[in-house]
């Protein structure tokens, strides 16, 4: 297995019409074909989950699209008159976004976001990308970074999954292992695999609403509302705290 841009190649192949699945591997050996695969990354607005469609009504002003995937969020917001900067650490994803018509797509990781990008009024983190906050310590650092690059009316629309909404014994055992290590239960160590490629391992975080509220303490953000459908995945609407 070669380490490379598996995610970007997968998105580009999907853009070229390939019928493929996103394989997620966890560091305990657990693997699954993600239900949020390449077709969803390229889906038109009418096929998005209801929670995401509802959340789009809350996007305002200049937007930072974090983990841009196939560019669907950036394209939708562009069509509605927003100035959007779409970022992803995958060069293949950035190529796919540009091919689809995203006007400002940049190869950039969340941890490298800085005020040189200008100020944003909304940050969108769909496709469970609130998980890019990664863990207890890093999440607070990244949230403070997003506070620094957003306006006084800044808002985050971040999607994640409540890890407690499962009865799968393998997931529950993984959660318990995390607790023994002093981690949040939904702290994942994963990589994406596609054909002969695998991404580097990275941390990803699923949180309950109570865990999220605790993480937000002292970061400049508060949990304003939750948008959810059936199941454990939800969009958290984060607003600036009063200064």
Overall 3D geometry?
globular
Largest sheet data: 7 strands, mixed
Low-pLDDT regions: none
CATH superfamily: Vaccinia Virus protein VP39
Q: Distance N terminus to C terminus?
A: 49 Å
Write down the Rg: 17 Å
What is the share of helical residues? 25-40%
Q: What is the level-2 CATH architecture name? A: 3-Layer(aba) Sandwich
Give the class from helix and strand content and strand pairing: alpha/beta
Our count of helices gives 8
Adjacency order of strands in the biggest sheet: 6-5-4-7-8-13-12
* Domain module count: 1
DSSP strand content: 25-35%
How does this structure look, described?
The protein is of the alpha/beta class and 243 residues long. The protein has one domain: Rossmann fold, CATH 3.40.50.150. The chain is built from eight helices and 13 strands. The protein has a seven-stranded mixed sheet, with helices on both faces. Helix 1 (6-15) runs parallel beside helix 5. The protein starts with a strand and ends with a strand.
Offer a few descriptive terms.
243 residues, alpha/beta, Rossmann fold, 7-stranded mixed sheet, 6-stranded mixed sheet, 13 strands, globular
Topology:
Blueprint: E1 2-3, H1 6-15, E2 23-26, E3 31-33, H2 38-41, H3 50-56, E4 63-66, H4 72-79, E5 84-88, H5 91-100, E6 105-107, E7 120-125, H6 136-148, E8 150-161, H7 169-180, E9 187-194, E10 197-198, E11 202-205, H8 209-216, E12 221-228, E13 233-240
Parallel strand pairs: 1-10, 4-5, 4-7, 5-6, 7-8
Antiparallel strand pairs: 2-3, 2-9, 8-13, 9-10, 9-11, 12-13
Helix pairs in contact: 1-5
């Amino acid at each position: 297995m070669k380490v490379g841009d598996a995610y970007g190649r997968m998105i580009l192949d999907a853009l070229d019409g390939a019928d493929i699945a996103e394989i997620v591997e966890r560091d305990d050996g657990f693997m699954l074909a993600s239900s949020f695969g390449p077709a969803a990354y390229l889906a038109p607005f009418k096929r998005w989950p209801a929670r995401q469609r509802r959340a789009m009504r809350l996007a305002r002003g200049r937007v930072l699209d974090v983990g841009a995937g196939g560019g669907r969020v950036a394209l939708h917001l562009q069509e509605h008159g927003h100035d959007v900067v779409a970022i992803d650490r995958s060069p293949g994803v950035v190529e796919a976004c540009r091919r689809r018509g995203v006007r400002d797509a940049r190869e950039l990781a969340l941890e490298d976001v800085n005020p040189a990008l200008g100020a944003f009024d909304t940050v969108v983190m769909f496709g469970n990308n609130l998980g890019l906050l990664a863990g207890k310590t890093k999440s607070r650092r990244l949230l403070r970074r997003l506070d620094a690059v957003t306006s006084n009316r800044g808002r985050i629309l971040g999607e994640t999954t409540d890890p407690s909404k499962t009865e799968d014994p393998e997931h529950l055992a993984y959660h318990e292992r995390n607790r023994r290590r002093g981690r949040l239960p939904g702290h994942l160590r994963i990589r994406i695999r596609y054909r002969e490629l695998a991404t580097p391992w990275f941390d990803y975080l699923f949180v309950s609403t109570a865990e999220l509220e605790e993480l937000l303490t002292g970061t400049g953000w508060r949990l304003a509302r939750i948008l959810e459908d059936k199941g454990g995945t939800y969009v958290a609407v984060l607003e600036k705290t009063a200064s």
